[in-house]
Amino acid sequence: MDWASVNSVLYTLPAGYLRSGDTFTWWQNSLTNGLTGYTYVTDGLNEQYDFATAQNTWLDVWTQLTGNVRFSNESDTQVRQRITILLQQGRSAAPAIENYVFNGLGYQNFVVENFSYPYWQLNLVQSNTNSIYKQIIGSISQVRPAGVPFEITVPFGGLYLDSINYLDAPSVTGAFLTTPTSIVPFGPSGITNQSQPTLPTTYLSDPVLNS
Question: pTM of whole model > 0.90?
Answer without folding.
Answer: no
